[in-house]
Write a structure and sequence with these properties.
The chain is mostly beta strands and about 500 residues long. Among the domains are: about 70 residues, no CATH class; about 100 residues, Immunoglobulin-like, CATH 2.60.40.10. It is about 0% helix and about 30% strand. It contains 1 helix and 42 strands. The strands form 18 sheets. Strands 37, 38, 40, 41 and 42 form a 5-stranded antiparallel sheet that branches. A 3-stranded mixed sheet has the order 6-5-7, with no helix packed on it. A 3-stranded antiparallel sheet has the order 31-30-32, with no helix packed on it. The longest helix is centred in the middle third of the chain and has 4 residues.
Amino acid sequence: MCQRCAPLYNDKPFRSGDQLQPMNCRSCQCHGHALSCHYDVGADEQPDEHYRGGGGVCDNCIHNTTGTNCELCIRGFFRLEESDPTSVDLCQPCNCNTDGTVNSSMECAQVFLVTAVSLGIGTSPTMTAVSREHVEGRRCDSCRRGYHTLEQRNSLGCLPCACDIQGTVPEGVCDMWTGQCLCREGAEGAQCTSCAHNYYNRSLLVQKGLSQGCVPCICDLRGTVTGSVCDSTTGQCVCVPTRYGKDCSSCRTGYYLSPDQSMCAECDCHPMGASQRGCESQTGQCVCAHPSVGGRRCDQCREMFFGFNPGLGRCQPCACDPVGSVNSSCHPDSGVCVCKPLVTGERFVLSSMEFSGAEPVIHYTGLSTEAVASGLKPFTQYTVILEVVPELMAPPEVFALSSTSLKVTWSTTEGQGIIARGQVTEYRVNMLSEQTSNPYAPPVVSQVLHRVGPSSQPVYLVEGLKPYHVYNFTVTLCTTTGCISSLPNTGRTLPAGGEDRRLSF
């Protein structure tokens, strides 16, 4: 009968037509998402005009669409801006991550701009979908840069990274899923706050703004306990008992670096020859207590001294005869001097007893322990004398007489402080100059103050000295074969104006 329009052709109300005005039914714009539509005069801008305006309203939109023309998506769905409006898949689920949306909302923007960067906030005529403050992404399922661990219990959605600036690479942020920061070399931990194995944090430089973060441990392998690493805060290495220092490269007091630098060896300084137990850490040289002593352990005699006495920690002066010796040096153990050609330190003398005061019949000088005398007279008595260099001269005694004078005395009795081993020719009183404080300096040559023969009184008065001043004296014993000097003894003059008194040494 053609008395009404088809279900999807009610954009204008049904009107009967004629040959001039057919009044065809107009289709509604439902884009294939409705099976029928109806006319709503309120929606028609031109209700009196059949060919202008339109008031068709789609009924029961399907495919998750809504709106007058099924052009919108229902709540919880959205459409892409450039999608085909007639597609049955026009509206897709928002699929929002409720951990990242405000109030766990599943709503999203009705139209998503494919070419735009979503900030997580979309608008439509009827709704607004908002992500939490630290969340981004179309589905509100990603943390913003510098945040991590999206969880519903976090009021802002994600937690700040909190990476340690000293342990993190420049401009580095944490992983948004795990919170792991991007650490510099040598740093570790979720926030890069710890140093890795065999690294330490230069914390002192952090306060000055010069920190390099975690730096490698620098330990001397020869001085470090095997398998150990340095302290993660200070960088202090674990030293073996004989080492110390941050890198364990220095030897402790009482030890020195061995020549091959493989270990710290004990100083082993001589208890009497050295002034202290410690030694120089690189060479092992001990500090010798007396100028006559040298050697690494202070147990050897220096040039021009011999006969190291382990009980006293001293050596005796060589006392070589300047006429017959090559120089002032002697053998460090025996004290034998280096003689000039045809000169020796021992002499064999054979004399006839028949003639008083006669010259010796034969002289033998040499290093052999025997000699043959020939050309002698028959039935004649001869005297044999073996002359050798003197062996011992005891130190002198020194007494204070006044503020400017000292008295020096010495022994002349064989076996009581002297061993001459021959005929004494003279005694010399010597005074040493003031000693330098450097124990490695060469000994000071003595000044001969007085010479006396063997029959003179063994005493000498030294005058013109400084008040309350220390002086060193030795006595030299000479025989026909050589000389020997005593160890020094010390005397101090009295203070100016003081009474005479004897000094004890």
